[in-house]
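Practice problem: predict the structure.
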Amino acid sequence: MTKIAFIFPGQGSQTVGMGQEFVENTAESKAFYESADKALGFELSKLMLEGPAEELTLTYHAQPALLTTGVMVAEKIRTAGITPHYVAGHSLGEYGALVIAGVLSFEDAVSVVHKRGLYMNEAVPAGQGAMAAILGMELNDLHAVTEKVTTAGDAVQVANVNCPGQIVISGTKEGVEKASVAAKEAGAKRAIPLVVSGPFHSELMRPSSEKLRATLDGITLSAPQIPVIGNVMANELQDLSAIQQELVEQVYSAVQWEASVREMIANGVDVFIECGPGKVLSGLVKKIDRTAATYCVYDEASLEAVIEASKEWTINA
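Answer:
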């Protein structure tokens, strides 16, 4: 039996024009963008479709933009008759997964992630935090490096465990720079600075998590209708209080993406469909398990490719 997971990308996948073909061709898709505008009180859709890119990249714009496109695409896929057995998202993408699972309404999710972006932006002024991808180093060895740098006075920690050989670190600008140098000296193949607006998934984000908790207290959560694999512990989220706590902790905790993918595979998932712009998560899945089938849906042609492929799947065996 074919088991399908919908996966939702995080910040960095946003592009000007995201979802444009769907929005221009179907009223249902356009309605998602209009609903986002209404929920936020400004024209997010114009930023998404026309830019400028610098504005779209701001964390409090990128987060609701990616959520909107991801959920819209996922609904297009479901309308075509393809339903996920599991959902998961990378960082911000987890909110898209929760919408598709029925935990959050789309309107509430758009509002929450916009505020999440504002809180994260406020937590650390621009230029004071940084992130870097460390390639070709074992997790335990990198933990040793970041702990040593942090103990010496410059905070840095593991932020994303993405796939074998790719781990992201996050912290103060100085901490990330020093840890990058130390990682290469300890055997890492490369240390690549990331173009981001803050030290996401680090302890420096903890102040934003408490503001987020207060916001989530005013939101109604419903029991998941589809299993959701969470970022923090890489296991299924079921209890509503645990889901809220997951979203709070997720802001300053490492994204366990590799473990999340392995958890879904262990539960029989063999097809992963990335919902939204870019192919980042599909690439990570392939590095985790080459046998997994991956698809990216972002326009009519890619949707048709998935629909055509699904004819060979045994979904209801």
